[in-house]
């Protein structure tokens, strides 16, 4: 008997408070909007997620590309994120094993690198904030355009 695999794709969904989108390791989602109180958990791949006050949790096998965090949106990263934009009152937290590449932190946004996490090629614009905890790693080129940088020793 031949082995089979199922792959799932979800596109263009919008979630309100209490809504949950869960993307498994074989799944993918594109152009999802998470409003305040909504959440997305992923072990697969997502692209183009708008986190408008919601929460995105990226597990170790997950990859989030082209995510925008706004209005208090939060991204918790154990996997990989590329091309993330962090806007006012929003947070990207890179946890142990997490990798963030090509992140842009705008006015009022936070990028936090916890122990075991890595931020590669971050850009921190005026009013954006970058916090690197003891054991966190910055790699590549980190560019600061007037945004403060904090390193916990």
From TrEMBL:
Protein name from the UniProt record: Uncharacterized protein
Pfam families for this protein: AIDA
Gene3D superfamilies noted in UniProt: 2.160.20.20
Protein source organism: Kluyvera genomosp. 3
